[in-house]
Amino acid sequence: MKVIAVANQEGGCGKSTIALNLAINLSLVGKGVILFDTDPQQNAWGTIQSRTDDLIPAYSVKSDIHKKIQSFDHLDYGIIDTPPHNSEIIRSALVSADLVIIPLQDSPPRYPELQRDGGSGL
Ligand SMILES: Nc1ncnc2c1ncn2[C@@H]1O[C@H](COP(=O)(O)OP(=O)(O)OP(=O)(O)O)[C@@H](O)[C@H]1O
Ligand SMILES: [Mg+2]
User: Fold this and answer.
1) Which of 6, 9, 17 to mutate to test the pocket of ligand 1 (most atoms within 8 A of CB)?
2) What's the pLDDT tens digit per position in 66-79?
């Protein structure tokens, strides 16, 4: 399974939207996908729960995603949405990931945010 995490400590930059659209669209082209929401806000998980099509399974995970994700290795893609603050669950998600997508809002007030912690935005 390829694991894609969407992460940035900046709130509201589009993490959950990207995670949801990735998961749903990969599923629509025939891939086996599972979505993990590690944000206590549960926006991505809640959106999946509100759908009536059962297109993809979604789990709300509060800890140790790098361990829990291993039991889904038979699927094609695992998509991980993360919370907007540095935390143990983000580090766990990053350890799990083959690819990390870091959404950015391109406006001058955001630049200090992007430069923090070595410019990773995390
Ligand atoms: N590409 C986009 N263009 C315009 N609006 C967008 C785009 N992506 C997301 N949004 C909007 O921006 C808002 C925040 O998006 P989203 O919830 O995905 O961000 P987030 O990074 O997950 O937020 P949080 O840090 O609170 O979890 C939502 O209202 C969403 O509809
Ligand atoms: Mg979010």
Assistant:
1) 17
2) 999 999 999 999 99
Map out the domains of the chain with their CATH numbers: 2-115 (3.40.50.300)
Give nearest CA residue, ligand 1 atom 10.
14
Q: What is the pLDDT of residue 60?
A: 97
Q: What residue owns the CA closest to ligand 1's atom 6? A: 14
Tell me the H-state helices in 1-122. Answer: 15-28, 43-50, 65-68, 88-96, 111-115
Nearest ligand 1 atom to alpha carbon 83: 27
pTM for this structure? 0.91
Rounded to whole angstroms, the Cα distance separating 94 from 96 reads: 5
